[in-house]
Write a structure and sequence with these properties.
Layout (H helix, E strand, L loop, with lengths): L4 H9 L6 H12 L7 H18 L6 H7 L2 H25 L3 H15 L4 H20 L6 H28 L8 E3 L5 E3 L5 H20 L1 H16 L6 H13 L6 H21 L3 H17 L1 H6 L1 H15 L4 H17 L1 H5 L1
Antiparallel strand pairs: 1-2
Helix pairs in contact: 1-2, 1-3, 2-5, 3-5, 5-6, 5-7, 6-7, 6-8, 7-9, 8-9, 8-10, 8-11, 9-10, 10-11, 10-12, 11-13, 12-13, 13-16, 15-16
């Protein structure tokens, strides 16, 4: 901090394609340092690096496409950029918040990088998003009117980005442990035999982040999910992957809504899914839809306990799925029945 090292890195080495990956790694190391008396240097580091980045990688770049077409070095650059932004914003987010346009640009880059089709890069971004949403959520309970004002302005800073993030989380949701029906490499729908621990861990982290996002603005989460569900029903976004990620996301936020909102939302979701089951032909389509119906109903015992008629319909549907010839559907129907029977045991007896 007492030398010209940061200046040299940013202005001499960062713009040179040959050195930019190593330079970004060095800047990330510096950004990760926590010392109190050099705040001005951190602000300068951030603003100068961002200015260079905007020349090298204009804000309107479609980073997802650029990554998929890029060479190894360019792909590494995107990964290193994600590490730099996440490290700086995590360690010095309060300093970044003092310069709103710069913060918005940094968050814009992170949203674009989060859309890249590479799990390792997504995990880097997810760690920061989880950190940000949990912090915003924990500050949600203000003690004085002054703190309430501060929380609202702070939330306002991130509002637009959080809405985009909800879209990304819902579109990319990882597969939960309970889902046994999967698409194999040949495009066939089969029963899963090996547990994918990586996917299960990713699901847990994504679920936690999406729950925070729902607490911060459940109407936005519900609106996005409802819109995506309508696009499944009318066919504009219909695909196994899109339906899976949407239903896994819907199941993951169980308990994050008020009970009345949850009831209204779930009735709509299950009706639409049952409608899709009737509408689509073919064994594989039905297997995918059935697995999603079972996952969603298994995640909401509070709703089922409060609505006996609905519980009865769901259980009858599960018995129907138990007679399916598809292994995965049969096994999942049994697992879901046991899960519901344990969570709603009194309702079965009385």
């Amino acid at each position: 901090f007492e030398t010209k090292l940061i200046n040299t890195l940013i202005f001499k080495f960062l713009p040179v394609p040959m050195f930019r990956n190593v330079t970004l790694k060095c800047l990330t190391e510096i950004a990760g340092v926590t010392v109190n008396n050099y705040d001005d240097m951190f602000v300068t580091l951030f603003s100068q690096t961002m200015a260079q980045l905007e020349i090298m990688l204009p804000l309107q770049t479609d980073i997802r496409t650029a990554y998929s077409c890029g060479q190894d070095q360019e792909q590494n650059f995107i990964q290193n950029l994600a590490l730099f932004l996440c490290t700086f914003l995590k360690e010095h987010g309060n300093l970044a918040e003092s310069n709103v346009p710069l913060l918005r640009n940094a968050l814009h880059y992170l949203v674009l990088i989060s859309e890249v089709d590479e799990v390792e890069i997504f995990k880097i971004c997810l760690e920061y998003w989880n950190n940000l949403t949990s912090e915003l959520y924990r500050r949600e309970v203000p003690y004085t009117s002054a703190q309430a004002m501060f929380c609202n302005t702070r939330r306002g800073l991130y509002q637009e980005v959080l809405s985009k993030l909800r879209y990304i989380m819902i579109s990319r949701m990882a597969k939960p442990e309970e889902v046994l029906v999967v698409e194999n490499d040949n495009g066939e729908v089969v029963r899963e035999f090996m547990k994918d621990t990586d996917s299960i861990n990713l699901y847990k982290n994504m679920r936690e982040t999406l729950v925070y996002l729902t607490h911060l603005d459940y109407t936005d989460t519900e609106a996005i999910m409802t819109e995506k569900l309508q696009n499944q029903v009318n066919g504009t976004e219909w695909s196994w992957k899109n339906l899976n990620t949407l239903c896994w996301a819907i199941g993951s936020i169980s308990g994050a809504m008020h009970e009345e909102d949850e009831k209204r939302f779930l009735v709509l979701v299950i009706k639409d899914l049952l409608g899709l089951c009737e509408q689509k032909r073919g064994k594989d389509n039905k297997a995918i839809i059935a697995s999603n119906i079972m996952y969603v109903v298994g995640q909401y015992p509070r709703f089922l306990r409060a609505h006996w008629k609905f519980l009865k319909t769901v259980v009858n549907k599960l018995f129907e799925f138990m007679h399916e010839t598809h292994d995965g559907v049969q096994d999942m129907a049994c697992d879901t029945f046991i899960k519901i029977a344990l969570k709603c045991r009194r309702h079965f007896v009385t």
